[in-house]
Amino acid sequence: MGKVTGFLEIKRKKWPTRPVGERLRDWKEVYLPFPQDELKKQAARCMDCGIPFCHQGCPLGNIIPDWNDLVYKDHWRDAIDRLHATNNFPEWTGRLCPAPCEGSCVLEINDDPVTIKAIELSIVERAFDEGWVAPRPPAVRTGKRVAVIGSGPAGLAAAQQLNRAGHSVTVFERADRIGGLLRYGIPEFKMEKRYLDRRLQLMEKEGVVFVTNAHVGVGVPVEALRDQFDAIVLAGGACHPRDLPVPGRELAGIHFAMDYLTLQNKRCEGDAIPDADFITAQGKRVVIIGGGDTGADCLGTVHRQGARSVHQFELLPRPPDTRAPDNPWPQWPNIFRRGTCAPSKPARSRWSARAAGWTSSRSPAPSSPWTATSSSSRWASSAPSARGCWPSSA
Fold first, then answer.
1. Spatial separation of the C-alpha atoms in residues 119 and 131, rounded to whole Å
2. Which neighbouring-strand residues pair with 216?
3. Which range (94-108, 329-343, 380-394) has the least confidence?
4. In the prediction, which pLDDT does 370 show?
5. Is 372 helix (H, G, I), strand (E, B) or coil?
6. What is the DSSP string of 33-102?
7. N or C: at which end does the chain have fewer Cβ atoms within 10 angstroms?
8. Residues 6+ apart with CB under 8 A from 58
9. What is the mean predicted confidence (pLDDT) over 308-317?
10. Are the C-beta atoms of residues 211 and 217 closer than 8 Å to each other?
């Protein structure tokens, strides 16, 4: 890496955001551009960790340490080429992805992780500003025709890859606009739709054909697609919502998230929706069931619509506000240290539960003191209540 001591010298800096009072009065994006001089310092925190688990955390397998290093060295053109090598649309993932790469960052074990998401978005936005992102139509066409059903992120990525391979691609979308979940499921404050339209214009220049109001299997016969195309890609989204069959579910004022978000997105697009058909939280006491990404999208929408109060229900327990004070490392490194005692946490495997004398769902704790030997080690204890403390004579 360009600065091997960067993670020791530089602390993580929060992505700058617009003031809360300002952004609650409009539907524009929350985040501000990250200053590039500061971003280079943040990229310098990416350390030569040997095994970059951010690769595993990223569903796309982005080569994250490479473009972090290129940003630090001010090689932005090379950085976008490396980013596009594994990611068709980094301007969308940089805004929408929950960044499991940061949760997998090795630095995150005992410090704040690298600001991977902010760096990714800054690379692609710099590339668009510089004119480095341009249409890439194929040099030769194969003569094959492919139909892609669904214009969400999966359908659009498949369409771009197939088109660049030389096939003639037509994307069918049942809604009135292209984008699927990106268009009507993601709120404007999370991703302004001009970034979606910008990429769609590039794809059209590359030769991809988009057909809207085409509900395959309803208005568009599948047999017709089979006759006209050599292959069909099924990239439709999961449109069936998860219901809760609980008492009172049939009462008025209870809505699915996608119905609610879609109507607001349509209004943000400029569509005239009668008030009688519109779902609004203005002046109402609102309960949101679910604390994931969709719940957060509803929360931001509810606030901007002027709800009287909002309560959000989450199934899982509240995560800790700070790191545990005993030991930031996982359980397993402690069992290899002589004369040390592991933190008082549940065992993480069958054999460690047996050795420590704890109860495990996979292996019950022994009812009597234990002794175990092997060809390579020897340890014994007559006090299971030691909770994993290894004798110094082990």
1. 18
2. 220
3. 380-394
4. 37
5. strand
6. PPPHHHHHHHHTT----SS-THHHHSTT---HHHHHHHHHTT-HHHHHHHHHTT-S-HHHHHHH---HHH
7. C
8. 64, 100, 101, 104
9. 94
10. no
